Every structure is written in C-alpha cells, then in structure tokens.
C-alpha cells in the first residue's frame, strides 16, 4: 500500500490562510521523509517544506515564517498550515515521501529524491 492523498486546497485572497492535509497509507507514512512540493505552470517543481521521521524540518526560504509543516502519527496524516499567503504561492501542491535516509536540505531541494507522490491539490491566491 503506497498512497498519498492531498486535500484542503482552494482559492483564497492574499493574506489569507489555508491548511493542506495529506492522508497516507501506513507504508508510505513510515517513510523517512515526507514533505510538500509545489509546481506552477511553466515552472519546475520545488520543495516547500520537508519533515523527517524524528520531527526535524526544513523550509524553502520563500515560505519561512509563513508555512508550518506538521504530522499526526496517530492519523497517518501530514499537514501544511499556510498563512499570509501571497499570489506567488499559487501552484499545485503535492505531498511526497522518501523511504531512505538522506540529508534534510538535500531532499527539500531535489524533488527527484522523492519516491512517492500524491495527485496534488490546487492552491490559488488572488491579489
């Protein structure tokens, strides 16, 4: 069972907030790293936030202080709390996981290191 299902996306005015959720299968949730990545049309997929099994995390510079990644082990669910949203945050947001251990920052900066991906949830921020 390898599955990741995102939810919580939508349209919001600049300055608003959204909370994304990622429901994972037990196997996928046990991955060493889980995180959120986003991709806007014409852009490469980029890391937003990644959290390791021990709870340590890393964020893209563009979202530091505004986004918070967390997880609920009892529910096998990953979250991304997004505040002070900007139009630049508009993108398809994907939940992803990597089974093997690696450095936190390397995983954040290299989507190709992620093994499993969800279908994505759209986030649109208007001015």
Task: Give an overview in words.
By secondary structure, the protein is mainly β. It is built from two helices and eleven strands, in the order E-E-E-H-E-E-E-E-E-E-H-E-E. Strands 2, 4, 5, 6, 9, 10 and 11 form a seven-stranded mixed β-sheet that branches. A hairpin with a 4-residue loop joins strand 7 (67-72) and strand 8 (77-82). The N and C termini lie far apart (40 Å). The relative contact order is 0.31. The model has no long low-confidence stretch (mean pLDDT 95).
Let me know the number of strands. 11
Whole-angstrom Rg: 13 Å
Instruction: State the share of residues found in helices, binned by percent.
Output: under 10%
By secondary-structure content and strand pairing, the structural class works out as mainly beta
Count of alpha and pi helical runs: 2
* Global shape: globular
The rounded distance between the terminal residues' Cα atoms is 40 Å
The helix-strand sequence is EEEHEEEEEEHEE
Largest sheet: 7 strands, mixed
Query: How big a fraction of the residues is strand?
Result: over 45%
**Mean pLDDT level:** 95
Features of this protein?
globular, mainly beta, 4-stranded antiparallel beta sheet, 127 residues, 11 strands, 2 helices, 7-stranded mixed beta sheet
């Amino acid at each position: 069972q390898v599955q990741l299902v995102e939810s919580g996306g939508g349209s919001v005015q600049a300055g608003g907030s959204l909370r994304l959720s990622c429901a994972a299968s037990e196997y996928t949730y046990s991955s060493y790293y889980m995180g959120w990545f986003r991709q806007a049309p014409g852009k490469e997929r980029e890391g937003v936030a990644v959290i390791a099994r021990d709870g340590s995390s890393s964020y893209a510079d563009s979202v530091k202080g505004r986004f918070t990644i967390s997880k609920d082990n009892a529910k096998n669910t990953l979250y991304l709390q997004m505040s002070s949203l900007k139009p630049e945050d508009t993108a398809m947001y994907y939940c992803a996981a990597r089974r093997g251990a690696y450095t936190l920052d390397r995983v954040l900066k290299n989507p190709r290191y992620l093994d499993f991906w969800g279908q994505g949830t759209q986030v649109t921020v208007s001015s």
